[in-house]
Specification:
Helix content is 70%, strand content 10%. By secondary structure, it is mainly alpha-helical. The protein starts with a helix and ends in a 7-residue tail after the last strand.
């Protein structure tokens, strides 16, 4: 795949990601505003926590937009391998926001449970409007999760996938709000702040998963065994390749970089071995779309002695 084609695909993917992101910003802004006022008016700490979580979605989506914009910039003299890692950094920042929000929600819930247990406060029964808003939020956020996840997989965007799981954690947060509010209305007011603590756990889990995934990609983790096996099979099928001496892979955000050493007949000319290497290079990049760079080194083939 030549440079122009790669840039064209990147631009198309960026447009798709921007569309998803703007839809997400609009819906999350509306939802967080409605949930916040519903939480205040109906005296529901779970709903207020849920509103804060939705508001953090807006911030996270802006991070996704910035990450996508910068990561799709063409390579330059200072960044000769491109800017893809910026997207991983965006996902990393998003995970930090999720963890921070989760801890805030959890601490607030714990304080209310302790104060209620010590008879320091009376917890008001949430209004019915908060229950209705929780149901609307669950449906909306679940739809956004699947929409963002499908698009994120299609364009292979780690930051968009991270944003999708943020939507799912928000949907789970709203499920928790619904249970807490319903429990409080049925005569168990303590369920509302307890739900805030449960919501905290969901948010922290989502943040941790995104943190680990983006960290692995930033430290050049190798590809999975299935991908490595596929690379070997493609190389070994090419004419003139007599063996695979060494293979090293690394994930560079959503892209793959390969260093491959192949064995060829040592009596062939430089031009002939170059054609073999070029053929291996072209077929690997053609069959594995995630490969951005493939370096092929040719060694004189040596028959291994088997005793």
């Amino acid at each position: 795949m030549d440079k122009k084609e790669i840039n064209k695909i990147n631009k198309e993917n960026e447009k798709i990601a921007m569309k998803v992101s703007f839809v997400s910003i609009i819906l999350n802004t509306i939802l967080s505003t409605i949930k916040f006022f519903a939480g205040i008016i109906c005296s529901s700490s779970a709903m207020v926590s849920d509103a804060i979580h939705s508001a953090s979605d807006v911030i996270s989506t802006f991070i996704v937009i910035i990450g996508m914009k910068i990561s799709n910039k063409e390579a330059d003299s200072n960044h000769q391998y491109g800017h893809e890692r910026i997207e991983c950094i965006a996902a990393l920042i998003l995970s930090m926001i999720l963890i921070f929000v989760g801890l805030e929600v959890g601490v607030d819930g714990i304080k209310k449970v302790i104060n209620f247990s010590n008879n320091s406060i009376n917890i008001e029964i949430p209004g019915i409007f908060a229950l209705i808003v929780a149901v609307i939020s669950i449906i909306t956020k679940e739809i956004m999760f699947w929409y963002t996840k499908i698009v994120g997989k299609k364009i292979d965007s780690p930051s968009l996938m991270a944003d999708a799981w943020h939507h799912r954690s928000d949907a789970l947060s709203s499920v928790g709000s619904f249970i807490g509010i319903l429990g409080a209305r049925l005569g168990f007011p303590i369920t509302d702040p307890i739900t805030s603590i449960i919501i905290c756990m969901f948010i922290l889990k989502a943040g941790y998963d995104i943190l680990m995934d983006s960290s692995r990609k930033l430290i050049d983790e190798s590809c999975d065994e299935e991908t490595i096996k596929k690379i070997k099979n493609i190389a070994e099928k090419q004419n003139g390749v007599l063996g695979i001496d060494k293979i090293q892979t690394r994930q560079f955000s959503s892209k793959i970089y390969i260093d491959l050493e192949i064995g060829a007949d040592g009596n062939k000319t430089l031009e002939e071995t170059h054609k073999i290497a070029q053929n291996v290079h072209d077929n690997i990049e053609k069959e594995i779309k995630k490969v951005k760079h493939c370096m092929i080194h040719v060694n004189p083939y040596k028959i291994k002695n088997i005793n």
